[in-house]
Specification:
Rossmann fold; alpha/beta; three-stranded antiparallel beta sheet; 7 helices; 2 domains; binds iron/sulfur cluster
């Protein structure tokens, strides 16, 4: 989201009583002083927390200079901050547990989108029939959704349950019927394996993880369910 729009969105959300959390790779934090200027508008009467991405997908080391600058600025401004990292199978260097005293949360690599296209080939694989559960999302009762810049509301990135440009967000959430959704229903009942079986899709014998199988199935189903499996960017198309 472009910076001035992001600031206005945060202000509006705070006015409505929402807790605002901003995720960023800190491309803007070229020095601690610069980072203070970028972050300062978010401290005006708002309780904003920061989740910053720092790992070997974002820089040459686990601790990127930009994230260190942003952490220093957040401390100066007394903002809540955490750092998120994603496992990097090719390195033996361990992920630090803290960056400048800020806790680092280390998450699993999910083999979907760019990770499926670029990293899955070299990953260790497991038989496809093992992936009978979505390991990450409560699709039956999602605790959170993502809304993208085209208005799509996602229960998992690329699985949309409606579009806020066509329907109010509250109607989309209240009208969510996971067991009537041809993508979500099998995923709840039997994970990516059930998605493949329900739609009679071809598959390989092994995959890097559940998301790898799920994403491969979604790519095959996009033509049939273009309003659910959207937008194009989630599937590497522009
Ligand atoms: S890609 Fe599929 S298996 Fe992975 S988190 Fe999303 S819904 Fe679950």
């Amino acid at each position: 989201m472009y910076y001035p729009i992001m600031i206005r969105a945060a202000e509006e959300a705070a006015k409505l009583g929402f807790h605002v959390e901003i995720l960023s790779n800190c491309y803007w934090a070229s020095s601690p002083q610069d980072a203070v200027e970028w972050l300062h508008p978010l401290t005006k009467g708002m309780n904003v927390s920061l989740s910053l991405s720092s790992d070997l997908y974002h820089g040459e080391s686990w601790e990127t200079e930009q994230v260190k600058n942003a952490v220093k600025a957040a401390k100066i401004l007394n903002m809540k901050v955490t750092v998120l990292s994603v496992k990097y199978p090719k390195t033996k260097i361990p992920c630090p547990s803290q960056i400048l005293g800020v806790k680092v949360g280390l998450g699993d690599l999910m083999y979907k989108e760019r990770a499926a296209a670029n990293l899955a080939e070299e990953a260790e694989k497991k038989p496809w029939s093992l992936f009978t559960k979505c390991p990450y999302k409560s699709l039956n009762n999602p605790g959170k959704v993502h809304v993208d810049r085209y208005g799509y509301v996602h229960v998992c990135q690329g699985i949309s349950i409606g579009n806020t440009w066509q329907k109010p967000f509250s109607d989309i959430i209240c009208g969510y019927k996971p067991f009537e959704n041809p993508i979500v229903q099998p995923l709840i009942q039997g994970g990516p394996v059930a998605l493949v079986q329900k739609h009679g899709l071809p598959h390989d014998e092994s995959y890097a993880d559940a998301c790898h199988l799920c994403y491969s199935a979604q790519c095959m189903l996009r033509q049939t369910y273009p309003n659910i499996l959207a937008p194009n960017e989630m599937y590497g198309e522009h």
